[in-house]
Design brief:
2 domains, 5-stranded parallel sheet, alpha/beta, 11 helices, Rossmann fold, single chain, about 10% strand
Length: about 240
């Protein structure tokens, strides 16, 4: 588990893009700001890492983009949230990873995963949780799967691979919650993050009034010094 001395709750959010626009919007605009405010009350910084916000899956799925995703997962350990909707997600090919030798050197398992036709989301699920599946990952990773009713195309390759990914998550023993809309997902993610706050940051305390006052005085002193230096330059 990473050192939490800096009092930061940093969570990687992995999900597909096109089929989860409403859910992502709800999390970013409603849920995460509320969690951030609750963390702030405890003197904790909350940071959600969602590298596909504002870009497409194809944009992220370059060699450099894939490596950035995996490196960010390492920086957020042990906290990982995986969300699925109706799609398996964008599938990189071998050309995407050959362009970055360091990617294969640092993450040698990725060659086999790409050969298997793993999507970008699948790669994130593997690195964030499935490849280790230790007690730490089992405790700190949580997955949210959309409840769905598929019609005649339920047996499509894309959806069969998505079902297989979800089955692998369950078979490894990770906690899974099901949701049916953005509001329900938001409530579940909100509750989970507050549970983490209470469980793993129980000894964190907000800055004292004295400390806040000292910080304010220091900021004011530096402001005045800056103004004085500016006046000397003008003179």
């Amino acid at each position: 588990m990473r050192d939490r001395s800096a009092n930061e709750l940093r969570v990687f959010i992995s999900s597909t893009f096109q089929d989860l626009q409403e859910e992502r919007e709800h999390l970013v605009k409603k849920v995460f700001p509320e969690v951030r405010a609750r963390c702030r009350e405890r003197g904790i910084t909350f940071t959600e890492v969602d590298l596909r916000w504002g870009v497409t899956e194809e944009d992220v799925a370059s060699a450099r983009g894939i490596r950035t995703c995996l490196e960010e997962i390492d920086r957020t350990r042990p906290y990982f949230i995986g969300i699925t909707g109706d799609r398996y997600g964008f599938v990189p090919n071998a050309d995407h990873i050959r362009a970055d030798p360091e990617l294969i050197e640092r993450f040698p398992w990725i060659e086999q995963a790409i050969a298997e036709g793993a999507s970008l989301t699948d790669l994130e699920f593997r690195h964030g949780a499935l490849n280790q599946a230790s007690e730490t990952e089992l405790k700190h990773s949580i997955f949210f799967f959309r409840q769905r009713l598929w019609g005649r195309d339920a047996a499509s390759v894309d959806r069969m691979k998505l079902i297989s990914l979800e089955r692998r998550v369950r078979d490894k023993g990770f906690r899974v919650q099901q949701y049916h809309d953005a509001a329900m997902l938001g409530d579940q993610v909100h509750a989970e993050l507050l549970d983490i706050l209470d469980r793993d940051f129980a000894d964190s305390k907000p800055p004292s009034a004295q400390a806040l006052s000292a910080q304010a005085l220091e900021a004011e002193r530096m402001k005045h010094e800056g103004l004085a230096e500016s006046a000397q330059v003008v003179a």
